[in-house]
Design goal:
Elements: H1 4-46, H2 52-70, H3 72-84, H4 95-104, H5 119-149, H6 158-180, H7 194-223, H8 228-249, H9 262-308
Helix pairs in contact: 1-4, 1-5, 1-9, 2-4, 3-6, 3-7, 5-6, 6-7, 6-8, 6-9, 7-8
Amino acid sequence: MISIRDFLVRGLLAGLVGGVLAFGVAYLVGEPSVESAISLEGSAATAPVHSPDVSTHRAALHDSVVGSVTTGTAADTAQFATASLLPPPSAAPSVDATLVAAPAHGGEHGDEEGTMVPRSLQSTLGLLTGTLLLGLALGGLAGVGLGVAVGRLGRLTVRATALWLAGGAFVVLHAVPFLAYPPNPPAVGSGETIGSRTGLFFGMVGLSVVFAALALVVGRQVHRTHDGFTAGVVGVLLYAVLSLVTVAVVPSYDEVPAGFPGQVLFEFRQGSLLTQLALWVGIGLTLAVTANRLVAGHDAAHADGSREHVPA
């Protein structure tokens, strides 16, 4: 008999694979935009204040940097945290952001307030550690979820169930909350709204999970009188309508400092979404293969055992 522990082990393995894939995408796609944002912080903090434009730009970035050092970047980290249990290092508070904030405070911030981990280590070993831990946590949950779901979703095979589970988790935990409150790079976001933004983002993730559960229940009810395709369409449409209406009515924030390059903001958010997508692609594919082998091996062993007891 296959136990939940068997699925958990395979989920952890899938999480490791997903974590490695996420690290590759985050390093290649996400890190360049983080470096660009940090460079902008540094240039704004050290630029001479002798023109209105520079002064305004520097003041806007200064406010954002202060928020990043204290609580501003924590809001963006919280967005990732809800969606992935652990913040990807690319969204974590930047040591460079902390250090460049010092001149803006007239030198009152020193090393005692800086991060002890250098930026070079954050973007490599720190990033890898974060994505692997994230992959293990989410992979383990996915493995347990697959063990519970197998055989309870109509005629879906083990592989199909694993892929649907991974795809659904990406949409529910990352994509839909991303539409309402996308993450911000260093120097973007106000510390004054940290509490409300964090609360709303957590609420958005919770509502997304509730909508998915409701859609699943309604789909199962429809499946009692209709075919599986119709039940699936009804469930997906219900989730989509509820989610999009919620995204449209929740409060929004536009706290991008004047002069901050839109391309950098776009690339950072694109990188964060692709990183999460890579994580779940790795988890889904690996879990589909390993769980299918587990079930196939169990069925083969069960069939052999049954034949041994057939009278000659």
